[in-house]
Design a protein that fits this description.
Layout lengths: L1 H5 L4 H8 L3 H11 L13 H4 L1 H9 L4 H8 L3 H10 L15 H12 L4 H8 L3 H11 L13
Helix pairs in contact: 6-7, 9-10
Length: 150
């Protein structure tokens, strides 16, 4: 028991090594070895560390590949995390939820005459998502420019 705790083993590993149950291990540690640190926590995979970020990005309507690219993970890894924690994307009818800051940025770029394609490239989104958001928010890329008569 002392060797397991000083070696920094996890609870599951200590159970395998000693043959004791979880409650027996915790009782022995708290009763007879209070000076030693508790069991080491299991190492979580890299994908679970980004759980809150993945949840927010999926709610914002980002695709799995966009999330994977932004977090430096594989698409399969992000897909597994979404499946494991039951993270759903934005509903099909609603489309992406755009933050106010992104709406304002999109409006500013649109008012400067930037096309939906260039805005999409600038924001790192798909052209369809930007175009539908611009229609929804009443922004129009490249509005009819008024010609100045010379």
């Amino acid at each position: 028991m002392r060797a397991c705790l000083t070696a920094g083993m996890t609870r599951q590993r200590a159970e395998q090594e000693t043959g004791l149950t979880c409650s027996q291990l915790h009782y022995c540690r708290s009763r007879y070895l209070p000076e030693l640190p508790p069991f080491a926590l299991p190492e979580h995979d890299k994908k679970s560390r980004h759980l809150s970020a993945i949840t927010v990005m999926r709610a914002d309507g980002l695709s799995l590949s966009q999330i994977a690219h932004r977090l430096g993970l594989s698409v399969a890894g992000v897909k597994n995390v979404c499946r494991r924690y039951k993270i759903k994307g934005a509903r099909a009818g609603e489309g992406a939820r755009w933050s106010v800051a992104r709406q304002r940025r999109m409006a500013a770029l649109s008012s400067q005459g930037m096309s939906a394609k260039r805005i999409a490239a600038y924001l790192g989104e798909s052209v369809d998502a930007v175009a539908s958001a611009m229609r929804r928010f009443g922004l129009f890329a490249n509005p009819q420019r008024q010609r100045v008569d010379e």
